[in-house]
Amino acid sequence: PKATVIIRYQVQVAKNAPAGVMIVNQGVLTGKNIPVHLTDFPDTPSTDDATVIGPVNEKESGSRIEASKIAYPVNSGDLKPGDQIEYRILLTNYGPEAAKNVAFSDPIPFHTTLVSGSLTTTQGTVSEGDQVTVSIGTLESGKSAEIIFRVTVDPQTPVNSAIYNQGVVKQDGKKPIPTDDSTELGGDDPTIITIPDDKSHVIGYKTIQDVNDGLVQPGDILEYTIRLINTGKTKAESVVFYDNPQGSPIFSPAVIDVSLIPNTISNTHGTVTMGNTSGDSSVRVTIGDLEPGEVAVIRFQASVSGYAADGTLLSNQGTITAKGLAVELTDDPNTLTEKDPTQVIVMSALNMVPPKGIKTVSGTNPNIRWELRWSNDNAKSVLIHVEDPLAAGLVYKNGGADFGTYRYDDNSRKVVWDGYIPAKSAVTIWFETTVADGVHHVENQAVAVWNDMKIYSDDPETPIIGDPTIWKETIPIGCPLSLGNYVWIRGEQACPTNDSVKPGLGSSVRNEIIPDIGVNGVKINLYQDSDGSGDFTPGKDRFIASAISKTGADGKPGYYRFDNLCKGDYIVQIEPSDLSSGILSGYESLGNATDPDDDVNSDNNGYPMSGYGVVSRAVTLIPDTEPVNDGDADSDTNLSVDFGFQKCSGNCPPKSVKP
Q1: DSSP string, 379-395
Q2: CATH 3.30.110.70 fits 65-345, yes or no
Q3: Which long-range contacts (CB under 8 A, 24 or more apart) does 529-537 make?
Q4: CA 398, CA 369: separation in Å to the nearest integer?
Q5: What residue spans define the domains of the chain?
Q6: What was the pLDDT predicted at 247?
Q7: Residues 6 or more apart from 557 whose CB is under 8 A from it?
Q8: 104-118, 352-366, 535-549, 599-613: range with lowest mean pLDDT
Q9: 230-240 pLDDT per residue, tens
Q10: How do the residues of the chain divide into helix, strand and coil, expressed in percent and rounded to 5?
Q11: Could you read off the pLDDT of 372-385 as tens digits, one per residue?
Q12: Which residues pair with 362 in a beta bridge?
């Protein structure tokens, strides 16, 4: 009575399964003294209906990294204080496409010390500290990278302790992936190795995950995972686990604003005797016996009350009993405190303000120092991810941060920082670069991601909010010229099905102009036409400056400008990374580029160049001869070099009208 049996199995979709097909399945339950029952799909209001998933995609896309991990004592026999543990992590990309900006990080386990110099990788660069960090870069489809490091168990570590460890893998466009102990069934398992005692002893680790991701908010679902481990050398008998998310004075400390979701308990050992029946509010699992080193895993879900107040601490702790052993409380493995409850805080993003970032620059050619300060004005800590791509022409030297995880990814040329900023506090991130002789203007801007929101750094030296930070070198006398103008996306982003031209000038659909949209944040590079060919020649044309498109004096986005230029021929380039993975990803040049030296405004002057983004042909600047109909009356400025982009391809018209 009231017993539960959970059955799990896996199937593989046939390689020739047609695209769009739905996978439908239903089981049958029979018994000697019960009627025949069909399984029910709980995600629908119908009863006794089949379980459905799909549709099948035509083919797998993107990257798919799996991160397996094993740990073993370097010395033979049981692990003892003072021994070394070796960790081996294998990252494999099983997807059809490359994984970009792959990075692995792993905190040094409690009760251990990293063996200096032991961190190695078959791909990328390594960094040792309070955690090990490996910048893999691009991991191609079908390729693997192996990471190895060792730790020494602290001499004072007591017997019956367990060394708990789990790393995480990050990459562009994907959620973080936790490592999985390849010696355990299931997925996303931490790696646990014990210091055994002669007698049986059961400890329990309890972790929590917000099923809804992000901040824990009212109405969210929390999933608790409990791992019970026999750290002794003899069998632990009659093991029982208890928990009450709602709070019970008998077995578990009280927790307000959380309630068990019945019928969500799963277990690898024993029988669920309470919690999987409608109306149950507590969890009880009779595990039975655990052999030395054996691990039992229990999972259940609880819901956060819709009325939980912002800032409410949700604290939960389970209880373990076993024959002849003292009662044990579960432990949060992510804190140094022993046998402490597992806790999260209800934190409504609506009641918080985004972090603020300011960026300053100092130094003279060739050495430049950039400094970021991200501040948190909230009464609670915030978790942010910061990326700062280096502008063309800059070479990274070194850098660091007050705290958190800092790294430089050489493949993507980005400074990256991850971490929590404490309440009413700030973190300073800095890095140093060099710049080539002759470069006199570089613009750079960082972006932080918080609660799925992007926040751009601000130059505090200007009144404009959210603008890039500019480094300028002193310019020789006699260089009064300027070059620039506008980066924009065509307002109509899809072609009519009748192949007529875009609605606008010459439209057969309606006689009106649809304005195009200027784009901020695009990186623009300026080169000197060093070989005089009139076209961009990689490796020969000399880099001069970089800029980032921003809001102009008219309040419209998308403008760029290079000042203090000498007489000569120049080529403008849209940064290639902005097209491959940046702000212009998924867009293409309008094509049919016109001569940028014709002094005509409101046209497209860029053409695609494979591997080098979108470039203009050479523009000749001569004092007192530049156009005066380009938005100002200055004959030393050419503000007519525009770059237009479109979302669609094929029959789209080659030209649009700039607002």
Answers
A1: SS-EEEEEEEEPPTTEE
A2: no
A3: 529/568, 529/569, 529/570, 529/571, 529/618, 532/569, 533/618, 534/569, 534/617, 534/618, 535/571, 535/615, 535/617, 535/618, 536/571, 536/573, 536/609, 536/612, 536/615, 536/616
A4: 10
A5: 23-53, 65-345, 352-472, 481-646
A6: 55
A7: 517, 518, 519, 520, 549, 550, 551
A8: 599-613
A9: 999 999 999 99
A10: 0, 45, 55
A11: 999 998 877 788 89
A12: 369
User: How sure is the predictor about 654, in pLDDT bands with cuts at 50, 70 and 90?
Assistant: very low
Task: Tell me whether domains 352-472 and 481-646 share a fold.
Answer: yes
- The CA distance from 641 to 572, in Å, is 8
Q: Are 370 and 361 in contact (CB under 8 A)?
A: yes
Q: Closest Cα to residue 324, out of 162, 231, 200, 159?
A: 200
Nearest to 145 by CA among 173, 161, 114, 122: 122
**Residues 181/208, Cβ–Cβ less than 8 Å:** no
For every residue of 354-373, DSSP letters joined together read --EEEEEEEEETTEEEEEEE
Distance between CA atoms of residues 590 and 606, nearest Å:
8
Q: What is the CATH number of domain 352-472?
A: 2.60.40.740
Spatial contact of 225 and 166, defined as CB atoms under 8 Å apart: no
For residue 550, give both structure tokens: 């921003």
For the entire predicted model, the pTM comes to: 0.49
pLDDT given for residue 615 in this prediction: 94
pLDDT band at 509 (very low <50, low <70, confident <90, very high): very low
Strand order in 177-178's β-sheet?
Answer: 125-127, 131-139, 99-107, 168-170, 177-178
- Per DSSP, 331 falls in state B
Amino acid at 142: G
Q: By the 8 A CB rule, do 281 and 303 touch?
A: no
CATH match of 481-646 with 2.60.40.10: yes
**In angstroms, rounded to a whole number, what is the distance separating the alpha carbons of residues 252 and 652?**
66
Burial category of 340 from C-beta neighbours within 10 Å (exposed 0-12, middle 13-18, buried 19 and up): middle
The answer to whether the bond into 55 is cis (omega within 30° of 0) is yes
Q: What is the mean predicted confidence (pLDDT) over 248-274? A: 74
Residue 524 sits at φ, ψ, to 5 deg, of -120, 135
Residue type, 341: P
Q: For the CA atoms of the chain, what is the radius of gyration?
A: 31
Q: What are the CA-CA distances from residue 50 to residues 38, 44, 67, 301 (Å)?
A: 8, 10, 33, 24
Give 71-88 pLDDT, tens digit per residue. 999 988 889 999 999 999
Position 268: which residue type?
A: T
Q: What are the tokens at 333?
A: 């493995």
Q: Which two tokens stand for residue 159?
A: 């017997």
Burial of 135 (0-12, 13-18, 19+ CB in 10 A): buried
Cα separation, 215 vs 347, whole angstroms: 6
pLDDT, tens digit (0-9, with 9 covering 90-100), for 9-56: 778 787 677 766 778 888 988 888 888 888 887 756 566 778 877 666
For every residue of 24-59, DSSP letters joined together read EE--EEEETTEEEEE---TTSSSSSPPEEE-PPPSS
Pairing of strands 65-73, 180-181: parallel
CB atoms within 10 A of CB 6: 10
CA distances from 80 to 158, 399, 644 (A): 9, 38, 66
Closest to 640 measured CA to CA, from 560, 523, 532: 560
Q: What is the mean pLDDT of residues 416-423?
A: 86
Q: What is the 3-state secondary structure (H, E, C) of 176-209?
A: CEECEECCCCCCCCCEEEECCECCCCEEEEEEEE
